[in-house]
Each structure stands twice: as structure tokens, then as C-alpha cells.
Design goal:
With 283 residues, the chain is an all-alpha fold. The protein has a single domain, classed as ABC transporter involved in vitamin B12 uptake, BtuC (Orthogonal Bundle). It contains 11 helices and no strands. Helix 2 packs antiparallel against helix 9 and helix 5 crosses helix 8. The longest helix is centred in the N-terminal third of the chain and has 33 residues.
Length: 283
Amino acid sequence: MTEWLLQFELFWRPALTGALLAVLLPLLGLTLRLRHEYWAALAYGQLGAAGALGALALGVPPLLGGLTVSLAAAGAKHPLEKRLLTTGLFPLLFVLGWSVCQLLTANLPSVERPGAALFEGQLYFSGVEMLFGTVLALIIGGVFLWCKGNDLLLAYLYPAHFQAQGHPAWVVRTGFDLLVAAVLALAVMSLGVMGAFALIFIPPWLACAFSPRWRVALVAASILSFLAYTLAFALALIHDQPFGSMLALVLCVSALCLPVAAVARREVPPGFAEAGKKKAGGC
């Protein structure tokens, strides 16, 4: 009993931090999926990692550096889109962040271990400040999606609506980009680059494959993400494994098992059908 109490005291803050991110990230990922901007999630996460390592090298808190660089990239997205296609912009930013991370870890011994942790996803070392930041991000993200969720859908599906109303659609899109960048900068600090990307990519992808409506997909993605996170947290803790890698593995196994189960029932989920086909009312 004493051992369990000791483990609870050590890991309840990291566990709660990851659980909140596991609920929030898929909600953002569904809108990214709708906009075909998954590369944005990977780019913001990698840039956040580069900013965190750069801040460590300068003696600045890594969270501040990660947030600054990610938010700067999100703020510059709209002007850059006028000169570079979105399909090329985000891969370019991802490669830039990756190269900076590699050079910093290779040349500065002081950031080598933190750099490895950012890729492995060492959730267990998340502290109170990370939990506070995650709670704040969940509140802001929830309010934003509740108030501006319909506007985000209209900005993508019916951009002429904003033109008719005399309101620029880029304001809503930029607000969402800033939110995604900030949440991913937080997530990378605890879940790792690939762990955060797995949560924002795989649960929404699966939810859209099996959900008939948008609101159902929102609920399904968060539930699937939370269950996968809980299992990954327990497995990584019991077997002393890097959390980010375990989380990505659990999500990938889920992604492979669900369509197999559907085929066994002689059902073809719409998300795994031909790329050009879309089911009415789905994602």
C-alpha cells in the first residue's frame, strides 16, 4: 500500500498532464484533418522542440523558448502562404526544426540529454508548471472551439460566407493556428515530438473512419485517444520504457486492429476506402 501511495505521489501530475493533452489534441487534430494540414502539427511540434533546446542553450526556460518559436511560426503562416504553397511550407518548417535540433544536440553537450528526452517523450518528469500550462491550454482551447468551431468549418467549407459578411476569414484561421502551435509546444515538452503528433493524427483519422457525423467524431477521437494514452502510460511505467515511443506504438496497433475488425464483420470503414471517395455527413 505504501508503494502504491508513493507512486501516486510521484506520477499523478504527469499522468494528469498527459490525460488532458490526450483529450485536447484529437479535437484540434480533427480540424487539421479537415484542412489537410497534418504537416502543420509535425512542423509546429518540431519547431517547438528546436525552440526549447535553443532556450536551454541560452539559459532561458525551455517552455518559453518552445512557445515563442511555435507561435512565431503560426503567426507567420498566413503571410508565407502568399509566397509558398501550404503543401511545401510545413515540410520546409519541419526540416528546419529538425536540422536545428540535430545541430544543437550534436554541438552542445548541455542540451544533448534534454534533446533526447524531447524525442523519447519523458512524461514522468513533467512538473507543476507543465500541468498548469496544460490546464490553461485546455480551458482556452475548449472555449475557442466552442465559440469559433462553426466559423472554422465555414472558413474551410464556405469561405465566401466571410466575404459576404465583410469579415476576413484569416483571422479565425490564424487564431486556430496559434492555438495549435501553443498546445503542441506544451505537448512536445511532455509527450515528445512523435508522441504529440501521434495523438493529434491517429485518433482523429480513426474517428473519421467510423463516425457518421462531425460531433460523433469529436467525442470518439477524444475517447480513443484517452484510452490509448492510459494503456501506454501503464505499459511504459511498468516496463520502464520511453513514454512517447510506447504511446505511438499503442496508437499504431489500434489503427491496424480497428480496420481488421471491421473487415472481419464485412464492413469497410469509409476512412479506409479509396482516397477519392467521401461519405455524406462524415469527416
